[in-house]
Amino acid sequence: xxxITLDSSxxxxxxxxxxxxxxxxxxxxxxxxxxxxxxxxFPSAIAAGxxxxxxxxxxxxxxxxxxxxxxxxxxxxxxxxxWREDPIYSSFYHQxxxxxSACSASFYKEHVLPYAKEFPDTxxxxxxxxxxxxxxxxxxxxxxxxxxxxxxxxGAGWVFARGAIEAVLAEAVRLGVKLIANSSEGAVTSLxxxxxxxxxxxxxxxxxxxxxxxxxxxxxxxxxxxLLDFKKxxxxxxxxxxxxxxxxxxxxxxxxxPVPYNxxxxxxxxxxxxxxxxxxxxxxxxxxxxxxxxxxxxxRSVPFAKHQIPVASEARIRRLLRDTMPQLSEREFSFARICxxxxxxxxxxxxxxxxxxxxxxxxxxGSGHGVNPMPAIGKIVxxxxxxxxxxxxxxxxxxxxxxxxxxxxxxxxxxHGADEKIMEFGDVEKWTRIGEGRSxxx
Length: 442
Ligand SMILES: Cc1cc2nc3c(=O)[nH]c(=O)nc-3n(C[C@H](O)[C@H](O)[C@H](O)COP(=O)(O)OP(=O)(O)OC[C@H]3O[C@@H](n4cnc5c(N)ncnc54)[C@H](O)[C@@H]3O)c2cc1C
Fold this sequence. Notes:
Layout: E1 10-13, H1 17-28, E2 34-38, E3 54-57, H2 67-85, E4 93-94, E5 98-102, H3 105-118, E6 123-125, H4 128-132, E7 148-152, E8 156-159, H5 161-174, E9 178-181, E10 188-193, E11 200-205, E12 210-212, E13 215-218, E14 235-245, H6 248-254, E15 259-262, E16 266-269, E17 277-282, E18 287-288, E19 290-292, E20 299-301, H7 311-324, E21 335-343, E22 350-353, E23 360-364, H8 374-386, H9 391-396, E24 423-424
Parallel strand pairs: 1-2, 1-13, 2-9, 5-15, 13-23, 18-24
Antiparallel strand pairs: 3-8, 4-8, 5-7, 6-7, 10-11, 11-12, 14-17, 14-21, 15-16, 16-17, 19-20, 22-23
Helix pairs in contact: 1-5, 1-8, 2-8
The structure holds flavin-adenine dinucleotide.
Flavin-adenine dinucleotide binds near residues 19, 187, 239, 364 and 371.
Keywords: FAD, Flavoprotein, Oxidoreductase
Protein name: FAD dependent oxidoreductase domain-containing protein
Organism: Oleoguttula mirabilis
């Protein structure tokens, strides 16, 4: 592997949350020959990061942290600082507070109470009155049946995810990064290998063009798994979201509310400032789309795009609304989509040089929490590229196929909700028909 210099050519595949962060970091470190490819016009309609908002929680490493805890705490520390202070990121972070909650007694004990210990300035919410008092009158009118939570007022809230990727990429482009984003010139169809197949030399796009590069960074989210044999380290997994429209006057009342997150039911975040839509996610361990690989005969989950959700997901979202904001529970959705991410088996990110193809760097495995660390991802990936990545982080985020030799694709990976199982899109009988005049009646 030739050492990287500031004029080395660097190709980033994917202009989502991670690709944009990496592009900006490279530009800030004065790399002069950086190109980002994306298969959709920017911001991509299939990017998980092209979303109204995502939960953001700050954290700090502690001396007693296990390696796993250290990984998440250190990454959150790095990103928290940037979300608060970096002029490109800081306007997108809204420290409105966050409520971690559950309905079952066992999950409350196992997941929610430890959160209160971790962040001592929290307040317990054990009655509907206490829940309602966390937001302006008229917002939380529900009975919160069985809901118990821990309200963290500071160091958490949400980020405007789409705004962040747009601003970050705009800054990267201003600093000289080149973006090619469309379905022919930007869509990578395959990695480009050296003649002896021992290294990656760039990528080929749908228009048939070859893009040679000294270093290729694969940051194509869930679709990364279609471009390289990850040896089962990634499971493309989808979640579901819908938007409920509010009037401008309603939106003013719901503004600045903390993010209530129930590990069995889902979460919602205050309405978007421009469109006044409120995003709601139902919580579940995820959907897969298993396909038998014709070459290996093995099953793998293959992402596909759809701007609708299963009717069962709509039912879960409406149940969440009935519990919390029943005044919105019968309102037509204005938008819905399935949203894919790449789950590693331990949900720790995969950021490493490929062990065989030394010019290929992997930046994937967001595992359902890859927006929170967005500003840190660029730093960590470029540190890995330059050989300066913190050792404790490097060890955890390394290429690690040995962990997944017998990977159980149906493993819940610590998630809850719905029927406590991974669901298969092939089993979905009915989808919503949002935009066709009505959503399915439940
Ligand atoms: C419903 C849902 C809710 C979530 N909530 C949160 C949350 O609250 N907090 C949080 O921190 N995280 C959350 N996440 C996770 C987070 O969104 C992801 O971890 C993160 O966005 C992953 O970033 P990425 O850059 O890897 O992928 P993406 O943002 O998906 O970007 C991938 C990019 O690659 C492009 N691409 C794909 N294939 C190709 C190709 N062949 N050629 C060129 N380009 C290609 C795509 O067009 C896209 O732009 C959530 C995820 C989902 C699905």
